[in-house]
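Hey, resending since the last one bounced:
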Amino acid sequence: MDSYDVVVVGGGHNALVAATYLAKAGRSVLVVERLGQVGGAAVSASPFDGVPVRLSRYSYLVSLLPDRIVADLGLRLELRSRAASSYTAAGADGLLVERVPGAETAASFRALTGSDEEWERWKAWYASLDELAVALAPTMLEPLVSRERFRELAGPVWPLVFEQPLGTTLEELFDDDVVRGVVATDGLIGTHTSLRSPDLLANRCFLYHVIGNGTGEWRVPVGGMGAVTAELFRVATEAGVDFVTGAEVTRVSVDGTAGEVAFEGRVVRARFVLAGVAPAVLDSLRGKEAVSRGEGCQLKVNMLLTRLPRLKSGVDPAIAFAGTFHLDESYTQLEQAYAESAAGTVPTVLPGEMYCHSLTDPTILGPSLAGHQTLTLFGLHLPAALFEGRNDELRDELVDRYLAALDNHLLDPIETCLAVDADGRPCIEARTPLDLEAELGMPRGNIFHGDLSWPFAETDEEVGTWGVETDVPNLFVCGAGARRGGGVSGIGGHNAAMAVLARFQDAPPTT
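The structure tokens again:
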């Protein structure tokens, strides 16, 4: 029977980070992946027959990946800033927020709201969040601190982010419904909840969206998400990590001192087992009842266009689509969509947001696609339950409805801009939560593997741990389901590796 110091179940980006740290520390590591390639959701694909474009099929932007992990592992990545932060299709001109908000942003706020008051509130709010990000980001790669210590680090903004519903905070800070909605969306990406919910789930999601790497900026990976995975695979391989792909793990057994991982007729022993799969999947592999930890609620649509459409507002589409293009995401519309979807009906108005990867990074386009552009749409408040028994039908219906909603703001209907593949079919694909479950093994299509948790210790026992521990001393969670997991960050992988190395102490590597 083969034996390793560590076996990692699942080959997503967090698993690759964990494996590389451990291998560089001299430990023998095996990664076992169900799919034919590693990377999980952080992959690129060419989905349109005969069309040379590499789309980030699932995850698509990078904010939470710390520079420290990039430096530690020697990753050769280029993450580019987008030309604009966001554009919201609302009113006559919409609301434009520059990457570094200045005079043009101020004028846009003034045109939308009729005064400078909302703009001044916006500046003050995001200045406080900048300070929050600088203070909190370093803690993500350290053992968990107590809630009290986290509160000290957070400073004056603490009650607004950590103690009352995000919706309450936004209602106190801003008067304009559109402005409230633009801020609120960071609390709802991949999260099905009301902004007013007392469980503060939106607050947790919001926090992760604004503190990434100490800046909160969401950047474009040059070469697409596949380039991120390719670099992680390179450094893992160079460090000596072994890989088995196309092999589904069927059993994980751990007793506190040793473990076994079974797959494809093989059983491999390990001193430690790391789970890059969702906690519910790990439960099943251990023969335990899988506990639901929340379901996914998004529709992802990828498109290739021959050109960007012109906007009725007259705003340059190269600016409007470079950052986040907000569609029907006012505060009221977001809350209405949640209420309707929570009641089991498809929202009357569909909130969503888009961006054009190729404006910032044209390298994903083949030479024959000069002048073409990609467009990615992320729809909110579409929980997995809505798709049960009608996944294909509802997917197609929602794509049509989103395109029609976008057309309301365009001079050129989006259908006239869609490229076609070698067989003359429009270059457009979509993924529902149930598609993610089938393709990536994410229970209910939850991109965070479960509800996000606060990035601090919530009990005295957790203080000083890494937030990756389980009920067995030699089994750790290293994926998005870890405390401080979620997003393309590598944080779960780093923290699981640190927890394992602390357990090894001075023990010699397995030979």
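Residues 392 and 411 are 30 Å apart (CA to CA).

Sorry for the duplicate.
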